[in-house]
């Protein structure tokens, strides 16, 4: 590993570089390296290979706790309602299409609520995807209240005996208080029209994001409560290591990873594969 | 803040008599931490700290009554000069319609920025023309056309299944005939490691010879910023950068990473979702933001 025969500061530096390059961030990298230093002091880690293994196991321990795929019991919960949120451009709309496709291919009736009433051609983009996956689409005119779209979507879902509803929301920076308030209202309306809903509040994070992903996850969680995370664009060169610190701190299940722009480019999160890819 | 951290360090150190080189190195560890927390690339941070160390270990800091302030000043000056000069203009030389091409990863804000740039030039009494060359993303063409409609800026209407290169070539003909001053080409988001799509950009570049190829990059990009910028610059060649979503709370260390690896100027920053949310880049403000 890293061509080293002994453990020295050079090895620790190289390890640190590896962790940073994978976007684990300062806090998590320090935490892992401190664990290594403790292990070295106690004489528990004697060879470089042991050090690498220690770090891997630590990451696995953290990430396995986040390896919780979504199991929907439609006999208990129908319609099952997803509310999909996140900052601008992370892949919310595309991820909805991918998940919808999975359930639609299993014979489930899917409805998508186009509650991004702000961005140019947001509804049109979703319309193309809804047609491709065979999902119903609920929309209103541009500029209308997203909560009104959510309201319509829930009522249409009940009337049409829909199994699965996705509410697509506009991208928004977590620091914009008024936009976060808007999201609270959408959630409240969904819950009012369908008690227990939204059953999954999915935060979509972009794997190329740095440590700002931690503030995103914290704030979205604080404001509306996040029950699942989708980490997109892992088909690039970014490793998405920021998810380690997020999982450790917030304990939110990582439901999916996005690995491309196509309808099938969605996988369930697997801690082992993720950690292997980091090394 | 970094300043208060350094103040605290130097207060503690001065109590022990004269400052040593080792003391300065300790202080620079805090600077290194600040940069890493700002998402500056790990290797770029290493190089930066080494170059700053040279100046910081000089007499002026060691003998200073306010070493913390001296170190901060050296770091800030160095960072600001690395950030470039600010006020970089968009190159509109050459016969109209001058081609400006926007490239970058998925979702970084290219289409929105194309609209913003069109508005920017419209404000300056130029006639921009928009060319929607993203044929992959659902409703991408429509998205750019809607922005054009909103601004009263004209745009090319691609045929169904028209290829991106042809869209640019035909779009240019329209722009030429219509007497427009410049054309802003919006391209599809793509990975820097996608050979076929990088080739597509090179073909558009070869045919249209854009005066400006601008890399649009998300201010919250992490360590990968070096890979992205390096690859786009080496495989395509960029003339400048636009850093988007600066209205968020990302420290924006990606800016330093991109500058370090390409030496190309950051010309604008995106500061919101509306079409008027485009500002000229200020290197000193960026330096302060990154240092935190
Ligand atoms: N390579 C890659 N691209 C992706 C992935 N997921 C989404 N994208 C792309 O990212 C871009 C943005 O996707 P959208 O679905 O529009 O993102 P969004 O979060 O809905 O964006 P806003 O609604 O504007 O906030 C598109 O070009 C998608 O094709 C992924 O897993 N890999
Ligand atoms: N807050 C904020 N949002 C921005 C900014 N620039 C773009 N956006 C938003 O980011 C999201 C993505 O913008 P697009 O213009 O669709 O990005 P793109 O690069 O064209 O995406 P692809 O074509 O899929 O690669 C949208 O929600 C935009 O409104 C900015 O400066 N600030
Ligand atoms: Mg969307
Ligand atoms: Mg676009």
The overall average pLDDT of chain B, rounded, is 94
Q: End-to-end distance of chain B, in Å? A: 6 Å
Radius of gyration of chain A: 21 Å
Q: Strand-residue fraction of chain B?
A: 5-15%
The poorly predicted ranges of chain A are none
Write down the Rg of chain B.
Answer: 22 Å
Which oligomeric state applies?
Answer: heterodimer
* Unique ligands: guanosine-5'-triphosphate, magnesium ion
How is the largest sheet of chain B built, in terms of strand order? 3-2-4-1-5-6-7-8
Low-confidence sequence ranges of chain B: none
Provide an overview of this structure:
- The complex is a heterodimer of chains A (279) and B (292).
- With 279 residues, chain A is of the alpha/beta class.
- Chain A has 10 helices and 8 strands.
- Chain A has helices at 9-21, 25-41, 48-64, 92-105, 122-133, 146-159, 177-193, 212-224, 242-250, 271-278; strands spanning 80-85, 110-115, 136-138, 164-169, 200-206, 228-232, 254-258, 266-268.
- In chain A, strands 3-2-4-1-5-6-7-8 form an 8-stranded mixed beta sheet, with helices on both faces.
- In chain A, helix 8 (212-224) links the parallel strand 5 and strand 6.
- In chain A, helix 1 runs antiparallel to helix 2 (25-41), helix 2 (25-41) crosses helix 3 and helix 6 (146-159) runs parallel beside helix 7.
- The model of chain A has no long low-confidence stretch (mean pLDDT 95).
- Chain B has helices at residues 2-14, 21-37, 42-56, 59-62, 67-83, 110-123, 140-151, 164-177, 195-208, 225-235, 254-262, 283-291; strands at 98-103, 128-132, 154-155, 182-186, 212-218, 240-244, 266-270, 278-280.
- Helices cover 51% and strands 13% of the residues of chain B.
- In chain B, helix 10 links the parallel strand 5 and strand 6 (240-244).
- In chain B, strands 3-2-4-1-5-6-7-8 form an 8-stranded mixed beta sheet, with helices on both faces.
- In chain B, helix 1 packs antiparallel against helix 2, helix 1 packs antiparallel against helix 5 and helix 2 (21-37) packs antiparallel against helix 3 (42-56).
- The model of chain B has no long low-confidence stretch (mean pLDDT 94).
- The A-B interface holds A 16-17, 20-23, 25-26, 87-91, 118-121, 124-125, 127-129, 173-175, 206, 208-213, 215, 233, 235-238, 242, 261 and B 33, 36-37, 39, 42-43, 105-109, 115, 136-140, 142-143, 146-147, 150, 191-193, 218, 220-224, 227-228, 245, 247-251, 253-254, 273.
- One guanosine-5'-triphosphate (GTP) sits between chains A (86, 88-94, 116, 119, 122, 170-171, 204, 232-233, 235, 258-261, 265) and B (106-107, 137, 189, 191).
């Amino acid at each position: 590993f890293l061509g080293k025969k002994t453990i020295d500061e050079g090895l620790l530096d190289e390890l640190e570089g590896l962790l940073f390059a994978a976007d684990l961030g300062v806090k998590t990298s320090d935490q892992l390296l401190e664990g290594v230093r403790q292990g070295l002091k106690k004489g528990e880690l004697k060879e470089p290979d042991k050090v690498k293994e220690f770090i891997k196991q630590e990451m696995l321990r953290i990430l396995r706790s986040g390896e919780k795929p979504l199991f929907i019991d439609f006999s208990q919960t129908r319609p099952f309602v997803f509310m999909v949120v996140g900052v601008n451009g992370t892949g919310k709309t595309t991820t909805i299409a991918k998940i919808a496709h999975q359930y639609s291919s299993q014979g489930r009736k899917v409805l998508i609520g186009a509650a991004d009433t702000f961005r140019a051609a947001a509804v049109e983009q979703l319309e193309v995807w809804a047609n491709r996956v065979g999902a119903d689409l609920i929309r209103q005119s541009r500029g209308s209240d997203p909560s009104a779209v959510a309201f319509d979507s829930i009522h249409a879902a009940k009337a049409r005996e829909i199994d699965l509803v996705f509410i697509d929301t506009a991208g928004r920076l977590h620091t914009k208080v008024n936009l976060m308030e808007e999201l609270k209202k959408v959630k409240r309306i969904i819950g009012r029209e369908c008690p227990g809903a939204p059953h999954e509040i999915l935060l979509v994070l972009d794997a190329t994001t740095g440590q700002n992903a931690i503030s995103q996850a914290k704030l979205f969680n604080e404001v509306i409560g996040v029950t699942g995370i989708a980490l997109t664009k892992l088909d690039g060169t970014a490793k998405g290591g920021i998810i380690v610190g997020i999982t450790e701190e917030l304990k939110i299940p990582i439901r999916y990873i996005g690995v491309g722009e196509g309808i099938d480019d969605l996988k369930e999160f697997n801690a082992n594969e993720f950690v292997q890819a980091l090394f | 803040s970094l300043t208060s951290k350094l103040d605290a360090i130097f207060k503690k150190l001065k109590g022990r008599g004269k400052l040593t080189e080792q003391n300065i190195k300790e202080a620079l560890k805090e600077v290194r931490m600040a940069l890493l927390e700002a998402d500056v690339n790990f290797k770029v941070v290493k190089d930066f700290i080494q170059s700053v160390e040279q100046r910081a270990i000089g007499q002026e800091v060691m003998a200073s009554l306010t070493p913390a302030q001296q170190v901060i000043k050296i770091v800030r000056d160095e960072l600001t000069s690395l950030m470039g000069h600010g006020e970089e203009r968009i190159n509109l030389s050459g016969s109209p319609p001058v081609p400006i091409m926007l490239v970058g990863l998925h979702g970084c804000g290219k289409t929105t920025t194309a609209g913003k740039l069109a508005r920017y030039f419209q404000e300056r009494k130029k006639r921009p023309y928009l060319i929607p060359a993203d044929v992959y993303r659902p409703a991408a063409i429509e998205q750019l056309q809607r922005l054009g409609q909103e601004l009263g800026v004209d745009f090319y209407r691609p045929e169904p299944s028209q290829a991106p290169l042809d869209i640019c070539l035909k779009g240019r003909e329209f722009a030429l005939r219509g007497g427009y001053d410049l054309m802003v080409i919006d391209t599809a988001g793509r990975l820097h490691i996608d050979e076929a799509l990088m080739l597509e950009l090179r073909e558009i570049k070869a045919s249209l010879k854009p005066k400006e190829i601008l890399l649009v990059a998300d201010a919250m990009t992490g360590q990968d910023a070096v890979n992205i910028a390096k690859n786009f610059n080496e495989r395509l060649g960029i003339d400048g950068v636009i850093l988007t979503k600066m209205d968020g709370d990302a420290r924006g260390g990606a800016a330093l990473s991109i500058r370090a690896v390409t030496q190309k100027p950051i010309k604008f920053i995106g500061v919101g979702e509306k079409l008027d949310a485009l500002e000229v880049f200020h290197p000193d403000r960026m330096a302060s933001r990154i240092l935190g």
